[in-house]
Amino acid sequence: MPRTLRPRTASAEAKGKSAPVTTRAVKKAAGKATTATTRKKASAATVPPPWDESLAPLTFPTAESERATATRQDGGRVTPFMFRVYDALLQQISKGKFTTYGELASHLGTSPRAVGQALRVNPYAPHIPCHRVIAASGQLGGFFGQAGNGEYTDKKRRMLAEEGIAIPDAGLDIEQHAASLHRF
């Protein structure tokens, strides 16, 4: 739901009142219409990578009281759904194993995209091993909001390789690596 601002307008000035105007309308009027793409790019840029040593490491909370107030490095809240995703990874996907967004989503009763969004903002990496989740096609999938080739996805590829899972550019043949695939 768009947030309502109350700037003064010419017609409202005459009446001595302010008129309700939505954030979207203000941005559009200013020539700065926001699109899903620009919001996505902006939010992905604010997610610090897990290997950024300049940030204090976050301790993974296990008590419900700690989880109720947990926040990410970017200030966002860690939701109960995110904790369900992180718990499943921490408890079931061991080093040298991997799963797919679809497998994890099916286990949690949600969509692969929702799982990907929770992993994109994982503040507990590498303790919560989000790098062990790949696309059902055998491709790497994203890593901290980055898809395709780049610094973050290169890091994901290296982390998996260090654990014995080498993913070529063309993708992993999941059937040939079925012994390493964790199915819930």
Rg estimate, integer Å: 21 Å
Oligomer, anyone?
A: single chain
Number of helices: 8
Q: Which sheet architecture does the biggest sheet show?
A: 2 strands, antiparallel
Strand content: under 5%
Computed structural class:
mainly alpha
Shape: globular
The helicity comes to: 25-40%
User: What is the helix/strand order?
Assistant: EHEHHHHEHHEH
Number of strands: 4
The average pLDDT score comes to 77
Low confidence ranges = 1-15, 17-46
Can you put this structure into words, describing what you see?
It contains eight helices and four strands; from the N terminus they run E-H-E-H-H-H-H-E-H-H-E-H. The chain has helices at residues 10-15, 23-29, 36-45, 64-67, 80-92, 101-108, 112-120, 151-162; strands at residues 4-5, 21-22, 99-100, 133-134. The strands form two sheets. Strands 1-2 form a two-stranded antiparallel sheet. The two termini are 36 Å apart. The chain has 184 residues and is mainly alpha-helical. The chain is 38% helix and 4% strand.
